[in-house]
Amino acid sequence: MRKISADYIFPIATEPIKNGVISVDDDGTIINVESDNQGANEHYEGIICPGFINTHCHLELSHMRSQVSENAGMIQFIKEILSKRSSFSEEEIQDAISIADAEMIKNGIVAVGDISNSIDTFNRKAKSSIFYHTFIEVFDFNPEKADETFETAKKLSTQLSTLNFELSNSIVPHAPYSVSEKLFRLIADEAVKKNSIISIHNQESLGESELFISHSGPMFEAFSKMGINMELIPKTGVNSLRTTLPKLPLSQKTLLVHNTFTTKEDLQWVKNYQVSSIKYQELYWCSCPNANIYIENKLPDYDLFIEENLNVTIGTDSLASNWSLSILDELKTISKYYPQIPLQTLLTWATRNGAEFLGLNQLGTLEKGKKPGLNLLKNVDGMMITEKTEIVKLV
Ligand SMILES: [Zn+2]
């Protein structure tokens, strides 16, 4: 048994404990969290918090590190991904996946909600000490292809479960603009049938909203040029969030990823929509600040998220649009631009909320009987994380 103390312990389930001590079993199970550090056999300067939960990653894009131009906008990003993605060997792709998985472990990440379009990551996930929930992501504009696309996804899901039955997964839509009505229906029906969680990219660029509101803007232009029949994307007069949420089942927990351009009016609309529904839809709002800076050079309005009491989670997105796979690096970016956000709030986003969304009740908080992993944050400035803050995985 280890008795570990630090300047502060952030159990997240409660307020921070000054000079707290935490006792853990050899297998990492928490025996006790106490406020008196007498008897501790390890003491650290800094803060101890639960293992991090990364709710949005694309591990299979790890070989795209440093391949895509920074700050070039969403359209350029999509173009570069499509043109460069497949020009790598199987070995290069597999090596990059292993390195990225190891990087996340080192960075104190204990669970990941990971998007997959292919089988590339499945073997690594089966071996990793990280818990992975795989979101098998589908997209197709054409309703005539919906059945075929969905069947392919179901095969991927079976392959993953056959490899290791503990590898949970669900079939999810890519984004509001890339999935036909029919495909949305197939996804929604299956999610209800399997009682599974849903994830979808949301309001990552402004062009996404213009596309639905008025069939115009940069995304509309780019898709038209790519030869996509734009009649397949409905012009609804309302933005992507308002077009899409009613297509998703009210009964299933849903993660909206990015929300960079989500406004106060949108959140008001969501509230009204919830109130008018028979069932309250449990929504989680994932933020990937470094990816937002990498692609669009814009951050979401975190003050608004806090004001509206949203269940915020943190994601790294992929190495195609990020410099690292580190939840701490994401928190550093938020802290830099929003220094007023308390550390307890940031760490709640990075731990408990993600564990709740993924349904992992052994993770996310430091409580007796749980096995959440322990992260030490070194070089903190009082209760603030700074550029210099580092992470050490203690358990
Ligand atoms: Zn993504």
Brief digest:
The protein is of the alpha/beta class. It is 35% helix and 21% strand.
Describe the overall structure:
The chain is of the alpha/beta class. It has two domains: 1-50 and 364-395, Urease, subunit C, domain 1, CATH 2.30.40.10; 52-363, Metal-dependent hydrolases (TIM Barrel), CATH 3.20.20. The protein is 35% helix and 21% strand. The protein contains 14 helices and 15 strands. It has helices spanning 74-84, 90-106, 122-127, 146-163, 181-194, 206-214, 218-225, 240-244, 264-276, 289-295, 302-307, 327-337, 343-350, 352-358, and strands spanning 2-9, 17-18, 21-24, 30-34, 42-50, 52-57, 109-116, 131-138, 169-173, 198-202, 254-258, 283-287, 312-314, 374-378, 390-393. Strands 1, 2, 3, 4, 5, 14 and 15 form a seven-stranded mixed sheet that branches. Strands 6-7-8-9 form a four-stranded parallel sheet, sandwiched between helices. Strand 7 (109-116), helix 3 (122-127) and strand 8 form a beta-alpha-beta unit. The radius of gyration is 21 Å and the shape is globular. 46% of the residues are buried. The model has no long low-confidence stretch (mean pLDDT 95). It binds zinc ion.
